[in-house]
Design a protein that fits this description.
single chain, three-stranded antiparallel beta sheet, 7 strands
């Protein structure tokens, strides 16, 4: 079930790097949130009215999580309609023609084997960057600040009106 009114929460962050050309300017960034666990995702699916038992949903997700890497390791991409495609890629160093011999070990030039994800770009389920941007409306949560709480540095979002009141320019 696609959600048409996506609320993407953002916050403002001040560039405090004195060496940067953007020093003192504010930039929009994603408001930091936690990542949903598989169990939390299963719970979310059931809240959308999925009529299967939680155990079945969790078993299917577990099997998907095992099968996609297995298939990608065999060089096979996996397309999940309305979501996107998981596909394998290889990152390698270049080598010269003289290095091509019958006994050549190509694995020596492999720097990495990766699983990539390409979002579905069909008209109804466009989760590409541009499509997602068109469908999502942003909600400003506030200003990101680095604060020390109980001796630990933490990132905290302060609502904009509170932040403005706290950082009001002193009157001469």
């Amino acid at each position: 079930m696609a959600v048409n009114n996506l609320q993407f929460k953002v916050a403002l962050r001040e560039n405090k790097n004195r060496k940067s050309a953007g020093y003192g300017k504010f930039y929009v960034e994603k408001a930091r949130t936690t990542t949903l666990s598989q169990r939390g995702f299963v719970e979310h699916l059931t809240e959308h009215g999925l009529s299967m038992p939680r155990s079945v949903i969790e078993a299917v997700l577990t099997q998907i999580a095992q099968c996609i890497p297995e298939l990608c390791a065999k060089g096979v991409g996996v397309k999940l309609n309305s979501l996107g495609t998981f596909y394998p890629t290889v990152q390698s160093k270049g080598f010269d023609r003289e290095d091509l011999t019958d006994g050549m070990d190509a694995s020596q030039n492999i720097m990495g084997i990766h699983v990539r994800f390409r979002p579905d770009g069909t008209k109804l389920d466009d989760y590409t960057s541009r499509g997602f941007s068109r469908r999502a409306s942003s909600t400003l949560e506030g200003v990101v600040e680095q604060k020390t709480i109980e001796g630990k540095k933490v990132r905290q979002i302060t609502p904009l009106d509170v932040w403005l009141a706290e950082h009001e320019a002193p009157q001469p």
